[in-house]
Each structure stands twice: as C-alpha cells, then as structure tokens.
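ingest -> validate -> predict -> emit
validate: passed (alphabet ok, no gaps, 257 aa)
predict: started
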Amino acid sequence: MVKLSFKQIRILFLLSILIYVATDQAIAKYNARSWSNTLNVVIYPINGDASDKSQQTINALTEKRFSSIKGFIKQQAKHYDIAINQPIEIRLAPQINKPPALPAFDSGMISAMWWSLKMRWWAWYENTYKGDKDIRLFIEYYANETSNSQISVGLEKGMMAFIKNYADEQFIERNNFIIAHEMLHTLGATDKYDPVTLIPLYPQGYANPSRGRYKKQDKCEIMAGRIPFSDTLAMTPNSLNDCMIGNTTAKEIGWVK
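emit:
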C-alpha cells in the first residue's frame, strides 16, 4: 500500500475541493446562460488600501448604490426580447477583510491558470454571504489612484470578478459601469477593444457600426469600454446611460441564439 505524505494528502484534499467547486460552478454557468431565472449577483466589499475613506464608503454602501446596473441589464435584455422580467438581483454581502492576491499577468499561461484556481479557492473560503449566489463580485475600494487600483478582472470560470473602484461619491456611476463590464465577463462576454491602444475594435466594439468606422458614436458598447471618435481617439463613458450591449456581446452571454 502506498503511504502518502501529509503534503500529498493536503494537495489531494485541495484538488478534490477544487474539482467539486468547478463542477458545481459549471452547472451554475449553464443555468445562468439560459436566462430562465433571475440571477443573484452578490457584491463583496473590500477595503483595498486600508484607508479611512475607503472604509467610510464601504460603511455607507447599500444595494440601492448599484441600482443603475440592475436597470441597465433589464433595459438591454428587453431589447433582445429576453422574457424574464428582472434578469438580475443585486445583493450586498458583509465586508471581506482579506484582499485577494493580484493576478500574475506577466507570468505566463500556467501561472495565470494557477492564479485563477487559487482565487476560486479564496472566494469559496472567504465567502461572507450565506444566501443564493450565481455571480460573485469582489470589489476593492481605494481612496487614491495607484497601480493596484487599476486592475480589474472578470472570470468566466467560477463566475466571479475582482474589481477596483474609487472610494468617492462622484465616481458612483463610473464605478457601476466598471462593475457591469466585469460582471458580463463572468457570463462569457469578451473585451472588444485593442489591448494596446484601448481603442474599440470595429465593428464589434461599436454601438452603431452601421454608421461606419469614421463616424462619431453616441453610445459605448459596454465591452469596448470607450466611445470611439476616430481610430486614435475614444472616451470613457460617464455612466451606464451612455452604454449598450451589442449583438456580439449578446450572443456571448446567451441572449442571441
């Protein structure tokens, strides 16, 4: 009989949990993309910089703060004839006190995959919400702009996102735009901008591509992240009122068969 070391037993235990979590999440993803039931989107606030200002922002959070996200998804779903009256509900979880590790973007594919697995384990272990949850959004608040405050990641595997927001009242709607963008990543939506220039790609990154590539757009395709004015100029929208979900994104999240 093979005798396993404590380290090997620990690894096997962790792998068994990850397999269970991955299977459970695969079923959840299938059910979510059917859009037959309202999806429970749970927001987990985190004080990203341990500042008083960030903590004050977190203390003042209510589910109403994120109502424009709920309204945006409902409006866009109606445009694509999604029958369900309320596609998402937003719930607010108790604060998480331990921030997640930053993603290792420059460490290669294997490291990125390992980071993704660790984050799924972290999200399961640090969960502070006991109700139903289909999508988990971990939002770190920062009082000031730093290199750490600019990296947000949405993961389709695990249906979770790690989002950086500014702890300032004037950025509420801008924050909600970022949250909605990353939330759609968890449902399978892909970015529609050039990763180097950040300029929206034509035609999938244009709200109204029929106008042509060199015509000013009046809306932002939400996964493009910006409103294009030319091949070299684009502007970040002020709120979700300036955004829409294009046909390609709608296909990716299951709204168009």
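The mean pLDDT is 87.
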